[in-house]
Every structure is written in structure tokens, then in C-alpha cells.
Design a protein that fits this description.
With 206 residues, this protein is of the alpha+beta class. Helix content is 13%, strand content 27%. The protein has helices at 14-17, 33-43, 107-110, 159-166, and strands at 2-8, 55-58, 63-67, 72-78, 95-104, 131-135, 150-154, 171-173, 186-189, 194-199. An 8-stranded antiparallel beta sheet has the order 2-3-4-5-1-10-9-8, with no helix packed on it. A two-stranded antiparallel ribbon has the order 6-7. Strand 2 and strand 3 form a beta hairpin. Residues 12-18, 110-116 and 201-206 have low confidence and may be disordered.
Length: 206
């Protein structure tokens, strides 16, 4: 089973995040000290000597900064909303973190040499922080179940756990059979800026 938690939206308050909410680095550049501290904290939880050396993939309107040994990928976009990033360095203050993918790949899958990224041959290891605390943005439009100030995501959570905290997702899909590539179930809570995608050969656990 592989789970990708995608977070985006509003940056968490620095006074709340205490380093465990990935959204604490949203809206910041890669060169920001807060981002460096966040990544170093994750690196200290791993045994890799090169944990903060990313693989950077640049596209016309976005940049993906992939930290395979940290189980995390950052998507950068132009701070001014420009759709052309040609000639802009990834560490420039002109680029900010727009969304984050957090990978929870079980060790048995992470050790499978067949489960690698097609472009680099590298694989995402499990996100090293076993508990992620996300702060939720209070809103008049939020259902009572999703109005909690914060909640914790652990690597044992199931889809039912997410629904009990966030309510029914605004969008969901996947679960197609082998003829469609065995697409895993995904659920998205747009107001909270959270998407969860799950992949498993036989059953969806989270």
C-alpha cells in the first residue's frame, strides 16, 4: 500500500506548526530559513547522509523538488502568478511552495526495486515523521466535523478515520479495476487543502 497525502492552501501559522505541519512551509521559497529547518528536521529522522539533496524537475509553469529519502515532494510556482518559469533558479525568491506531496510507502514496498520513479530510477522512502499534525482553517462554510483546530495523521489511519475528522470529501474517485490500471481510491477536501490517494494490489487501507 502506498499513500500520498497532498496538502495545499493556506500556510499554517508558525506559532502553531511546531515543525510537524507540512503546510508551515507553503508560500515560502526554497531558500527560506523556515524551509531549511523543516527539511533538516526530517533529515535528522533518517539515516541518509544526503537526505536534503533533492532531484529537481523543471516544467514550463512549475518546478518539482523531490526529496526521495524524505518521502516528500514540493511543487513550486511563480510568486507573481506567471505561467513561464524559464530562466528562474529553483532557489529564487520568485518561486514559492504551492503544494506538498507526502509519501507513506511501507518498507516492504520501498525495498522493491520495481517500484521506482520512471524518470530517475529512484524511489520514495516513507515520510520519516510518523505523526503529522495539520491545522485546519476555521471557516463558516466548514462542517462541524472539520472545524477542529488540528488533527494528527498517522501511518495507521484508514479512510474512515479521515472521514470522521473531515466529513465526507468534496471530491473522490478511483478504485477502477486492472483494465483501467488499478487506479487507487482518492479523496479530496478542497476547503482544507487535503487530498489522500491510496494504492494497493488487493485492498485500500487508507
Amino acid at each position: 500500500m502506498r499513500v500520498i497525502s497532498h496538502v495545499s492552501g493556506t500556510r499554517a501559522s508558525s506559532s502553531i506548526m511546531a515543525g510537524s505541519d507540512p503546510r508551515s512551509i507553503l508560500g515560502l521559497s526554497l531558500s527560506d530559513p523556515v524551509v531549511r529547518i523543516f527539511l533538516e528536521r526530517l533529515s535528522n529522522l533518517t539515516s541518509s547522509k544526503h537526505a536534503v539533496d533533492p532531484d529537481i524537475k523543471s516544467y514550463s509553469d512549475s518546478v518539482y523538488v523531490n526529496y526521495y529519502s524524505l518521502g516528500i515532494s514540493l511543487m513550486l510556482v511563480a510568486k507573481d502568478g506567471s505561467k513561464s518559469l524559464k530562466g528562474i533558479d529553483s532557489y529564487s525568491e520568485q518561486l514559492i511552495i504551492d503544494s506538498i506531496d507526502v509519501y507513506n510507502t511501507p518498507s516492504e514496498e520501498a525495498s522493491d526495486k520495481n517500484k521506482t520513479t520512471a524518470s530517475t530510477g529512484r524511489q520514495y522512502l516513507p515520510y520519516p515523521d510518523s505523526t503529522i499534525e495539520l491545522t485546519l482553517i476555521a471557516s463558516k462554510d466548514c462542517e462541524p466535523s472539520s472545524a477542529a483546530k488540528a488533527f494528527r495523521i498517522t501511518n495507521t489511519m484508514t479512510g474512515k478515520d479521515f472521514v470522521s475528522i473531515l466529513g465526507e470529501p468534496e471530491r473522490k474517485g478511483g478504485g477502477a479495476g486492472p483494465s483501467n490500471g488499478s487506479i487507487g481510491i482518492w479523496c479530496e477536501w478542497k476547503r482544507e487543502g487535503i487530498m489522500v490517494r491510496a494504492f494497493h494490489r488487493k485492498r485500500i487501507v487508507k
